[in-house]
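User: Run a structure prediction on this.
Assistant: Running it now.
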Amino acid sequence: MATLLPRPPAPRRSPSAGSMAAPRRPAGPTVLLLLLLGACGFFQSYAVEVDVKDASNITCLYAQWMMRFLIKYETNSSDYKNASLDLTSSVTHNGSICGSDTQAALLAVQFGDGHSWSVNFTKNNETYRAEFITFTYNTNDTAVFPDAKRQGPVTIAVKDAMHPIQLNNVFVCHHTTSFEAENVTQIFWNVTMQPFVQNGTIGKKESRCRADTPTSAPTVLPTVANVTTASTTVSPAPTTTPKPAGNPVTGNYSVKTGNKTCLLATVGLQLNISRDKPLLINVDPKTTHTDGTCGNTSATLKLNDGNSTLIDFMFVVNASVQKFYLKEVNVTLVNHQNGSVILSADNNNFSKWDASLGNSYMCRKEQTLEINEDLQVHTFNLWVQPFLVKENKFSIAQECSLDDDTILIPIVVGAALAGLIVIIVIAYIIGRRKSYAGYQTL
């Protein structure tokens, strides 16, 4: 059964079997599913609460969490679009399993038009851990994918990086975490979860995720209150441009296929957001996770800064001239506190950063990528090679015109010669006039 409650989700502690009674079945687990509707600024998101009970009507697996999916899909016109998929008010729970010493526990939910999500847990004598997260989205859902080229369900599996948790402890993670694979970003927050519940009672001791621990500074979403444009006085001062945040730190990023590096990038990145109030956001290489894909004709660099700033760069090959270039940039800003997408923008019409295959592209000066009217990406100290990387090193670099000081030499020489010619002509004219005037006085 399912109940919709108009209140924000709150962690549930030590539920008793009697307080969450479910119809008795002869065998197999039963599940109590609650959907909690929370207001998250400018969107509404549903939190799902699942209480799996065994054949004796005793809780064996409990979970409450919120999640959202960002999906990049190909359209009928061979372009790519970004879709956002949220939990709906109609969620089912078929296939959840209590698990045992020899069988993995499974938490599974289904929602929307053919979408589903599940995670399985294993245990030993002392600990439990999540193993794999499986997500299936259905591109036949025209409300989410109105012009998808590929039709039908698409399934991806991601190995969970969850560290082992002590048995009978409840895992809690309020901060946003995400997994990214195969053009899908899964975002989770406000997670409370415990498989292999002993004696039907949720553990009183919590095991927190690293992002929630006091020793780990939480990721702070760039907002008007905490970026460089924030005013320190009470009276607001009108502004049309962001206060300078300084150039970003240059980061070194790489993508591998197996043990072989297939993409190299060195760049400092800064986002300039002009929507509402201007914001400048510097990407921090120390908190940025790198992912991506490599191929013969396309390559993608995916950067994730603290699960709040996601930037994708897509490179393609122009086979007719044997050159590569930057074709597309996608940027997503996520609120780490509630998983809401603050801004999502992309531009797939670039023809920048081009160089011959086997070479790299370099531009030390600042460049600007116009994503849309609200967002710009500024790059500094750029050096990138998305194809044919050898021995984990950049190949010969083709520099941008901004860096090429040699073109100034002929310009300066030409200007000097032109100036000299002008001076000679003027001197000649003045000399002729004086000579003519002297001749007239004779």
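Confidence is low (pLDDT under 50) at residues 1-28, 36-44, 215-240.
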